[in-house]
Specification:
CATH topology: Rossmann fold
Largest sheet: 7 strands, mixed
Strand order of the largest sheet: 3-2-1-4-5-7-6
Catalytic activity: 3 S-adenosyl-L-methionine = nicotianamine + 3 S-methyl-5'-thioadenosine + 3 H(+)
Function: Synthesizes nicotianamine, a polyamine which serves as a sensor for the physiological iron status within the plant, and/or might be involved in the transport of iron.
Shape: globular
CATH superfamily: Vaccinia Virus protein VP39
Keywords: S-adenosyl-L-methionine, Transferase
Family: Belongs to the nicotianamine synthase (NAS)-like family.
Protein name: Nicotianamine synthase
Structural class: alpha/beta
Number of domains: 1
Order of helices and strands: HHHHEHEHHEEHEEEEE
C-alpha cells in the first residue's frame, strides 16, 4: 500500500471512529458534517483495491457500509416526511440534498438500459425502494413515462411514506405500485418484469447480496435485465462491491464507474436464456446466454 493509500485509509478510519461514536445517525448538523467529509474523502477517483487491505480494515469497512446504509435510510425517511407535508410532494423533490445526484444517476441508468434493451419496458420492479423512491420517481417522470413501476420494500412504514408522495399525482399514482414483502418470498411475480433494479442497500454484506442475486437469477424471466449498483476504488468504503463473478445465472453486459459526484457504479446484466447440461461428463450445468 503506497503513501497515498495509507493516508486515505487512515482518514476513513478516523471518520469511522467519529461516526460509530455518534449517539444517533438521524439527520443533524453533526451527522451531516461527518458523512459529508466521508463522501468527499472517498469521491476522488482512486485505484485502491479494498479487497487487498488488512483484515482489521476490512472489518472496519464492513461496519462502515452498514452505518452508511442506516444513515441513508434515516435521511430518506426524514425527507419523505417533510415532502409528505406538501400538497404536491413531487414538486418539491429538490429539497432532498442529493436530488441532483439521483437525476444524474437515473439518466446514466436509463442510457445504459437503452443500449441493451430494444424497446421501452412496460413493467419494472425496484427492490428496496425505501421511503423516498427517487430512482423510480425520476425514471417515471423523465425517462420512462408510460412504464409501470412495482416497488418492493420489507418495511411497511417505508412503503406508507412512499405511497403518500404520489397521492396528488394523477399520472404516477396509477403507475406506481408498492409491495410490502421480502423479495426472497417472491417467485412467480418476478417473471412479470422485463427489468429489475436491485437497490444498493438491499443486502448489507456480500453474502446477503449474492443470495438476493441468486434468487433473482432463479425466478426472473429468461432474457430479463438486472440493474445493480456497485462501487469502485475508494467509493467501496461506502457501498458493497459486486464483481461480475458474483452474478451467477446472468450475463454481465456492462459495468460503468462514474468519476463525478455520482458515487455508485452501475452494473447491467441479462438473465441467461436457459440452463443446459454439458455434453462432457463432469463439467456440470452450463448456461446459454442470449446474444
Amino acid at each position: 500500500m503506497d503513501c497515498q493509500d495509507e493516508t486515505l485509509v487512515q482518514k476513513v478510519c478516523e471518520l469511522y471512529e467519529q461516526i460509530s461514536s455518534l449517539e444517533s445517525l438521524k439527520p443533524s448538523k453533526d451527522v451531516n458534517t461527518i458523512f459529508t467529509k466521508l463522501v468527499l474523502t472517498c469521491m476522488p477517483p482512486n485505484p485502491i483495491d479494498v479487497t487487498k487491505l488488512c483484515k482489521k480494515v476490512q472489518e472496519m469497512r464492513s461496519k462502515l457500509i452498514r452505518l452508511c446504509g442506516e444513515a441513508e435510510g434515516l435521511l430518506e425517511s426524514h425527507y419523505s416526511t417533510i415532502l409528505g407535508s406538501y400538497e404536491n410532494p413531487l414538486d418539491h423533490l429538490n429539497i432532498f440534498p442529493y436530488y441532483s445526484n439521483y437525476l444524474k444517476l437515473s439518466l446514466l441508468e436509463f442510457n445504459i438500459l437503452s443500449q441493451h434493451y430494444t424497446h421501452v419496458p412496460s413493467k419494472i420492479a425496484f427492490v428496496g425502494s425505501g421511503p423516498l423512491p427517487l430512482t423510480s420517481i425520476v425514471l417515471a417522470s423523465n425517462h420512462l413515462t408510460n412504464t409501470t413501476f412495482h416497488n418492493y420494500d420489507i418495511d411497511p412504514l417505508a412503503n406508507l411514506q412512499a405511497i403518500g408522495l404520489f397521492s396528488s399525482d394523477s399520472d404516477k399514482s396509477k403507475r406506481m405500485f408498492f409491495h410490502t414483502n421480502d423479495i426472497m418470498n417472491e417467485t412467480n411475480a418476478l417473471k412479470d418484469y422485463e427489468v429489475v433494479f436491485l437497490a444498493a442497500l438491499v443486502g448489507m454484506d456480500k453474502e446477503d447480496k449474492v443470495k438476493f442475486v441468486d434468487h433473482l437469477a432463479k425466478h426472473m424471466t429468461p432474457g430479463a435485465l438486472l440493474m445493480l449498483r456497485s462501487a469502485h476504488g475508494a467509493r467501496a468504503f461506502l457501498y458493497l462491491v459486486l464483481d461480475p463473478s458474483d452474478l451467477h445465472g446472468f450475463e454481465v453486459l456492462s459495468v460503468f464507474h462514474p468519476a463525478n459526484e455520482v458515487i455508485s457504479s452501475v452494473v447491467i446484466a441479462r438473465k441467461y436464456a436457459m440452463p443446459a447440461n454439458s455434453l462432457e461428463e463432469g463439467l456440470g450445468p452450463i448456461m446459454l446466454p442470449i446474444k
